[in-house]
């Protein structure tokens, strides 16, 4: 996902597979990642490089700052927010019981409580289509949902 201030800092930010990633198309920046108000990671990146921070699939808001080291000044801030974002829950199902569906619905309700828009996709999810849609959970369809941007992709075992 492109950051809002892409013209100043041509960067992309994603959160998937338990990792927050920042990719820079061009330039040279010190990237600082904050969880709440705490600095949790910083790294220098330049043209076509990326940095990442293992976030353990935490569904929280992140603040990412881009600094010019030479000038010693911040160039841009990107807020990677759950509120208003599509969140794709990709469960890795170990057990085929009804508890798994309940757990997925609970996780999606947590997304909604944070202001996010829940989506899910897993093998056999279409058997539960009516229930999931009734719960306000969107179903990801390969080939149909490609116009949707997913700032957060949460992969978790159930």
Would you write up a description of this structure?
This protein has 158 residues and is mostly beta strands. The chain has two domains: 11-80, Immunoglobulin-like (Sandwich), CATH 2.60.40; 86-157, Rossmann fold, CATH 3.40.50. Helices cover 14% and strands 44% of the residues. The protein contains two helices and eleven strands. The strands form two sheets. Strands 5-2-1-11-8-9-10 form a seven-stranded mixed sheet. A hairpin with a 2-residue loop joins strand 3 (28-35) and strand 4 (38-46).
Task: Tell me the layout of helices and strands.
Blueprint (H helix, E strand, L loop, with lengths): L10 E6 L2 E6 L3 E8 L2 E9 L2 E6 L7 E7 L4 E8 L5 E7 L5 H16 L3 E4 L8 H6 L3 E2 L12 E6 L1
Parallel strand pairs: 1-11, 8-9, 8-11, 9-10
Antiparallel strand pairs: 1-2, 2-5, 3-4, 3-6, 6-7
